[in-house]
UniProtKB/TrEMBL annotation:
Class in the EC hierarchy, top level: hydrolase
Record-given protein name: trypsin
Keywords (A to Z) from UniProt: Disulfide bond, Hydrolase, Protease, Serine protease, Signal
Catalytic activity: Preferential cleavage: Arg-|-Xaa, Lys-|-Xaa
Pfam families: Trypsin
Superkingdom classification of source: Eukaryota
GO biological process: proteolysis
Compartment annotation: Secreted, Extracellular space
CDD domains (alphabetical): Tryp_SPc
């Protein structure tokens, strides 16, 4: 997750736990070719991964997609390392406002498929990733982490006590009114999943696990579905 405009974001999933190994089958680790974890992502069919546009580190030849991973430090024999074929960032992605912070990555072959739809307010969802687990250590955890969060209405998220109008129609907020649980940088691009469907990707925020500032996710909307359909992959 990246900081919002003029905001610094600490870098971890907060208040989460380690899930049963390989139980979250749709998540992938986006890494450099030197096997350094950069962002999370999620499989939406056997050829496409969805992530955040700010996870674009350059040419696709600089990236590697790792599916079937749980521990970033131990070889488990379940990993599938695949090089991307090309990147499709949202054409209207704005680095300043974080609007349309979403990107598709086409790969050679992946096996798991998920589905994405619009998300209702109040729905409990799950976000997963390899982001920092402590605000002070700056260390990526060895194993995948996950946390459940409720969807926050755009009205509440856009209130003067929160993001004060900074949330667009392309964004979803999720978090507790008491704070304490969240996703942040290091979890960028990872999936926000409700009842087995991908509704958003980790995008940005202000601080982490702050009661006034829920995490912000890019909504996986009809435009991305249209992009896939145009490429004959839906």
């Amino acid at each position: 997750m990246t900081p919002g405009p003029s905001n610094r974001c600490q870098e971890r999933i907060v208040g989460g736990y380690a899930p049963v190994p390989h139980s979250i089958r749709y998540i992938v680790s986006i890494q450099t070719t030197e096997r350094q974890h950069v962002c999370g992502g999620s499989l939406i069919n056997k050829y496409w991964v969805i992530t955040a546009a700010h996870c674009n580190i350059g040419h696709y030849s600089m990236m590697m997609i790792v599916a079937g991973d749980y521990s970033l430090t131990i070889y488990e024999g379940t990993e599938q390392e695949i090089l991307p074929q090309h990147l499709v960032p949202h054409p209207e992605y704005n680095k300043t406002t974080n609007n349309n912070d979403i990107m598709l990555i086409k790969v050679r072959k992946l096996l798991v498929r998920s589905v994405f739809l619009s998300v209702p307010e109040g729905r409990m969802c799950r976000v997963s990733g390899w982001g920092y687990t402590s605000p002070n250590t700056g260390l990526i955890p060895a194993t995948l982490r996950t946390v459940k969060l409720p969807i926050v209405s755009a009205r509440n998220c856009n209130s003067s006590e929160s993001f004060d109008g900074g949330i667009t129609d392309n964004m979803i907020c999720a978090g507790y009114s008491t704070g304490g649980k969240d996703a942040c940088k290091g979890d960028s691009g990872g999936p926000l999943v409700c009842e087995g469907r991908v509704y958003g990707v980790v995008s940005w925020g202000k601080g982490c696990a702050d009661a006034q500032f829920p995490g912000v996710y890019t909504a996986v909307d009809a435009l991305m579905q249209a992009e896939l359909a145009a490429n004959g992959q839906m």
